[in-house]
Fold:
Amino acid sequence: MKALRYALWGLVVLVAGALAYTTFMTPSQGPSTQLAEAYGAPFTATLVAEGRQRPMSRQDMLGRPHVMFFGFTHCPDVCPTTLFEASRWLAGLGADADGLDVYFITIDPERDDAEMLSDYLSAFDPRIKAVTGSQEEIATLVKGWNVYAKKVLLEDGDYTMDHTASTFLMRGDGSLQGTIAYQENSETAIAKLRRLLGT
Amino acid sequence: MSKFSPLRSIGCALLLSAFVATPAFADSAHTKTEHFASTGMARVGDLVISSAWTRQTPPGAKVGGAYFTITNEGDSADRLIGGEAAFAKRVEIHEMSVTDGVMRMQPVEGGLEIKPGETVELKPGGYHVMFMGLSENPKKGGNVNVTLRFEEAGETSFLIPVAGIGATSLEGHDGDHGDDHSKMDHSGHDMKKDDQ
Ligand SMILES: [Cu+2]
Structure:
């Protein structure tokens, strides 16, 4: 009986100790000094800007706040209207737009080569850059940014793409600040971009 | 090419003014095609199409969308099943949606139904007529000639006015604010490969 009593007391001490440990030793939940979490993934691709193309990697995007929109040129509505809106954002930001990069990333590299994208973008603000690449390179981007992109077959072997219609707001350190939704009011979008730019 | 010729647009403008000036115009020889002489409107059987518009497309674009309302004044249902346009390889009826940030689009199976007494709206973000395989890009301020095909009422051809690239409606002139862009000359943009 004595042995059992000691064992029980031992158990009580252990439990009390464990409770004390979890109560006093749990890491504090105070203000975090950690860096914001990076979003996306490393990638290589082809940058199309000002009528020229050159290889690029994720590294080239970092250091400056940037916005990323994933779309394709065989798109009747969301993509041209978003690019038009993006042109309006840049105009609305005035000189502050110089601190921002805008990327239109094709999710349809099969049809959207550099030449096609360059032609297409000529209707919009010339500061908007396009990104294309091999199927693998674009797949890495799509996966890295957790973008939805799915081929929908039509007649005659033609196809269209279902895709994420939101614009990603990225900080210079590669972290995600937020998004701009499709058809979001221009003023709201510009206010979000000002927050991203810190202006 | 004739669909975009200035001569044709002038002709349409003249027809339109004739229509405004002469209420009896509907009795003229032009009734044979069963459409109003007014741009963006048409009547075929018991169906009335109105407020039609499309957008200018960016250079090289292969697709475009057109939007309008259809009212069925008859007492039996009809379906918009397709169409034709000289500037597009195919004209399809699509539906589009944006749910949880994802845009989805597909052909409307069996065509778009217009029930008797009802009005169906085709608009950005929803039902639309989709032009595919564009051989020419509609230009803002012009008109495109489009034929729509209905299961019961048959076909009608009419002119659809073209709004700006970013327009969200014909009247909203949303496509006009960015005029400074359309006036920019980007024509010198040849593709060059940078030295690597
Ligand atoms: Cu469509």
Notes: Confidence is low (pLDDT under 50) at residues 1-36, 173-196 of chain B. The longest helix of chain B spans residues 6-21. Helices of chain B lie at 6-21, 179-183. Residues A 76; B 65, 94, 96, 105, 128, 130 surround copper (II) ion (CB under 6 Å).
